[in-house]
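Let's do one together. I've listed all components of the complex below, 439 residues spread over two lines.
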Amino acid sequence: MQIANQVIQLVKKEMLLEWRSKYALNGVLLYVVSTVFVCYLSFISMPNPLTWNALFWIIMLFASINAVAKSFLQESKGRHLYMYTLVNPISLIIAKTIYNSLLMIVLTVIALLFYAMVFPFQPQTDILMYLVATVLGSLSFSTIFTMVSAIASKAGNGSMLMAILSFPVIIPVLIVLIKLAKNAIDGLDRSVSLDDIGLLLLINALVMGVSVILFPYLWRD
Amino acid sequence: MQKTWWKILGAILVIYSSIAGLLLGVPHLDILNETIRNLYFHVPMWFAMVVLFTISVVYSIASLSSKNEMYDKRAVESANVGIIFGILGLITGAFWAKYTWGSFWSFDPKQNFAAIAILLYFAYLVLRNAIDEEQKRAKISAIYNIFAFPMMVVLLFVLPRLEASLHPGNGGNPGFNSYDLDSRMRMVFYPACLGWIIIGFWIYTIRFRIRTLEDKQL
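Okay, and this is what the predicted structure of the assembly comes out as:
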């Protein structure tokens, strides 16, 4: 399978590049740590579960935008052209999405650990469920933001456009995600959240499908 | 006459539905009382918006497959008029909300999602502004349009049904059809929908022609 091979090679290449410079990892981790620290200084303690949840997702949202925006926006023109001659566009978009998802999952878990250290989990939280919610969330963020950053990279001022384009698209995902996370915090029975998980997976599949179909058109420049 | 019959039809339908809507009798329901007449304005606005956005996405798909710049113009002008109708839908909804739910913006899920759907298309216009080169702009905005259309459908029709909303048809409330849209209202409602869709389409064709003429003069 040529596409599968290309995808694996591309993901390996991205991971290698990232590991050499650790640019995105360090940048986003620094962002998360400093934000949590500032919140710690202002809030001191956070007994209110609503605030706890909301703050975590605000931090994760902006961390994701920063992390995933780099994936397309920092590609130079020359490298872009070189890629164009080498690989199938479908492999490229799938590889970028997989790489961004992995990056986001790692970052989210580290961010959650740090956040939980500073502001402890609420007593009745279903921690495993919350972890599932965060992983699903990072997956959704990365699929949507990868496509939006691909579109934004083609236009002029990339990063501002990235924020404008991504905001309306991410709202439905964010609403379902926060509801799911809130269910986990309240310690509700897991079957209650199955609908929301299904909906998130469906939105992910929809966005992935549309991205794979549309990216080849974006590619030919 | 061949080319204009539908415009005259649209005009007559809208005038009829506006006058009849305000004068003919309506069923009396609690809380709604006379505001139920807003049905003849609020719902047709949204129908017209959806029709126009569908036209927009169809022309975006066409613009991607062929390189005809006319398709791109049609896509953007129908999106423009669609946004206007969406804003009108939000305004009529807000007025209705003031009298039935208590405030203009009740932070009802349907209201919020509808506003975000309009924001989606505002972002489309911003994207178009950010790209200077014509062909590139046509291609990239077509891609974003195709990306945004299913999102809009999900935001307006799928998500509100899952949330606790006061809006009829969502959050467990029955839609208007089941218990109170009697035949008197249907007589005005269906012509209103058709009339406003025709008017929206007419405005779009005019804007398209203006845009074509402007571009020719450049």
